[in-house]
Write a structure and sequence with these properties.
globular, alpha+beta, 6-stranded mixed beta sheet
């Protein structure tokens, strides 16, 4: 009888773990994509910015050496004072890149970081416009 109770407890715990895991995995997914439509995965990171990963690009490029948080760090290291607001997996000239959007005192920054080497491969700045200047 002791083995039966032990088996029931272990089996019940396993079922509970699977159920809770599935609930966490589907959290934030309120709807399914219609057949043939692409869905991007968006998540707010603990680092304080949005991360967007296109599942097709994710599958195409597979595991990458540089993750989204590391790419954000590469950009902020190159632009002290910048605050990252979004990082998105993208493709540039056939290679996987992280497109990093950031803000600093002079305006918006958009930078590309190679997802395999961590090299900053492109950077563009848009100066903040003075809203009071209507001339």
């Amino acid at each position: 009888m002791g083995k039966t109770k032990l088996f029931s407890l272990v089996g019940g715990g396993l079922l509970f773990s699977v159920t809770v895991g599935a609930a966490f995995a589907s959290a934030g997914q309120s709807e399914q994509a219609p057949p043939g439509e692409q869905v991007s995965v968006r998540a707010a990171s603990s680092a304080g910015f949005e991360i967007e990963i296109d599942p097709e690009l994710d599958a195409q490029f597979g595991p990458r050496t540089v993750n989204a948080v590391q790419a954000a760090g590469i950009v902020t290291d190159s632009r002290p004072g910048a605050r990252v607001v979004k990082v998105e997996l993208d493709e540039e000239d056939g290679r996987a890149v992280w497109e990093v959007e950031a803000l600093d005192g002079s305006g918006d920054i958009e930078a590309l970081v190679d997802a395999f080497t961590g090299q900053l491969v492109g950077q563009d700045s848009v100066e903040a416009e003075d809203e009071g200047d209507d001339d």
